[in-house]
Amino acid sequence: MPTNAKGLHRELWVGALFLTVVVLLIVFGWLMGAIGPLQSHSRFYILYNFAGGIEVGSPVRVAGVKVGKVSKIEFMPEVASQGDNPQERTSLKLTIDVSTKAVPSVRKDSRFYVNMAGIIGEKYIEISPGSSTAPILTHGETIRGVDPPRIDQLLSQGYGVFGRIMDFMDANEKTLTEFLQGMQELIADANTLLKGRERQKLLHLIDNLNSVTSDIHEFSVRMKNPETRRFYDQVFDLVDRAHSIDKPVIKQFLQEEGIRARIF
Amino acid sequence: MKFPKFQNRWRFRREETFNQMYLLGVQSVPIIVVSLGFVGLMMILELAFHMRLVLKHDALVPAFSAVLMVRELGPVITCLLLTSRIGAGIAAEIGSMKVTEQIDALKLLSIDPVDYLVIPRWLGSVFSACTLTVISIAVALWGGAFLATQKLGTSPGEYFNTVFFFVKFPDVLRCLIKAFVFGTLIPLIAAYHGFKCDLGSAAVGEAATQAVVRSSLAIIIADFLLTYLFYAV
Predict the structure, then answer these.
(1) Residue A78's closest CA among A67, A87, A66?
(2) Is B59 exposed, middle or buried (0-12, 13-18, 19+ CB in 10 A)?
(3) What is the ipTM of this complex?
(4) Is B167 in the A-facing interface, judged by CB distances under 8 Å?
(5) What percent of chain B has pLDDT over 70?
(6) Per the domain annotation, does B174 fall within a domain?
(7) Is B14 contained in some domain?
């Protein structure tokens, strides 16, 4: 024990410093998600074949809100999937802890995606809220996650496709060259035609076509008018009646009237 | 069966240990708070400049500054400041005790000088290094949050959310291991130079200088080795 007041005073200060640091460490641990004595979590297991860069400690979000973290990653190549395809085998088992506040949104039909956020691409698990009719996921259940797209495989496949295109081009180089030359000549001719003396003729032709189509349009509109349709019907009727008057009848009529005419 | 020497060597001198904790730790709080507070402010400004220059974006300034502070600058700057403050003091104190033959007197009284002088200072130094490192990180983060709020337009919630996304608790534990190692190096090197001090007042000054220089060097080398061990292996 300290022998005087000065010693006690110093021990109090040292104790205060120590307590301050302990409190700060607890706050750091709480903010960093390492400790959460007042929080309760539900634990789920997600199966993947490819985790896409997820690490222990990566956040788990439900509808974009951080609600937990990845607490463990295990390589378990013989685990059978619990999802739609029970025969499927997956190679990774992720253990995630989700806050109980968010658990009502995690349903049997929720999807577990591996997403990327931020400009440097930090990875997290996004849980899409399931439908309200599906039962809520219970503590300790295992779900099949949605494997993220493998950029490396896409690049590899793209490289293969590009290689085949190159092979095709190499094999048909002469044909392709001729085709391109022909296209080039065609374009050059068209260019010459459009730029030279013929340009005015083409423009005139286009103007005429425009005018003709415009007239036809106007005629068509007029033909749809009721008066025009009545006139058309009358003309049709007249022509129909004139059609029945043949040559002898017209000749007889002209003779009777004393008209001399050479019609036919 | 008795082991008197063993018991004597490791006897816990409570009063002297608390005294050293007070002198080395509590009395160093103001200089650490002020220094690391300004380091936190400087880091925000400097990283914001560089990130705008290169990435045209400063959203990750809080994260990078916090990672750098927790993993490197927090323990290193704290312990370098501690070295300049207490390393010279320990070397000069032990050196002057040797010059005035007080250490010989301790030996005559069958008191082990290492047990009596070094162990309490080592405990005090380790306590100071660890506690002050945690306080310095907290101060630097709060300083950074203040400046980021004022200058970068980041809200405090956004700042701490970004910080604690990148800084993990194991980083804090590794930071404390660093502080423990640095806190061990400072009194050991200072005491060594104090015990090896030649006779004369000039030699005491030389011992104090050597203690600060070599402790600083040892801290920087140890920091590299620990960083390599923690993050590169």
Answers:
(1) A87
(2) middle
(3) 0.81
(4) yes
(5) 95
(6) yes
(7) no
- Residue B113 near residue B59 (C-beta atoms within 8 A): no
Place of tokens 């378990």: A76
**∠ CA B171-B174-B175 to the nearest 5 degrees?**
85
A56 touches B: beta carbon within 8 Å: no
The answer to whether residue B17 is domain-embedded is: no
B28 touches chain A (CB under 8 A): no
Number of domains in chain B: 1
Instruction: Give the separation between CA A236 and CA A257, rounded to whole angstroms.
Output: 28
Domain that holds residue B184: 29-232
Helix axes B201-227, B88-99, angle to 10 degrees: 140
Instruction: Give the pLDDT of residue A18.
Output: 92
Q: Is A31 on the interface with B (CB under 8 A)?
A: yes
**Cβ–Cβ gap A24/B164 under 8 Å:** no
A24 to chain B, closest Cα gap in Å: 7
Nearest CA among B121, B124, B140, B132 for reference residue B190: B121
Continuous segment of H or E residues that includes residue A58: none
Q: Is residue B81 part of a domain?
A: yes
Question: What pLDDT does B1 receive?
Answer: 47
CB B90 within 8 A of CB B193: no
pLDDT in tens, B6-17: 455 556 678 888
Distances (CA, A) of A104 to A33, A115, A137, A138, A260: 21, 22, 8, 9, 108
3 state SS for chain B? CCCHHHHHHCCCCHHHHHHHHHHHHHHHHHHHHHHHHHHHHHHHHHHHHHHHHHCCCCCCHHHHHHHHHHHHHHHHHHHHHHHHHHHHHHHHHHHHHHHCCHHHHHHHCCCCHHHHHHHHHHHHHHHHHHHHHHHHHHHHHHHHHHHHHHHHCCCHHHHHHHHHHHCCHHHHHHHHHHHHHHHHHHHHHHHHHHHCCCCCHHHHHHHHHHHHHHHHHHHHHHHHHHHHHHHHC
Contacting residues of A for B59, CB less than 8 Å apart: 118-119
Quote the CA–CA distance of A78 and A102 in Å, as a whole number. Answer: 31
Give the model confidence (pLDDT) of A49-90 as tens digits. 888 888 887 888 888 888 888 888 888 766 555 555 666 777
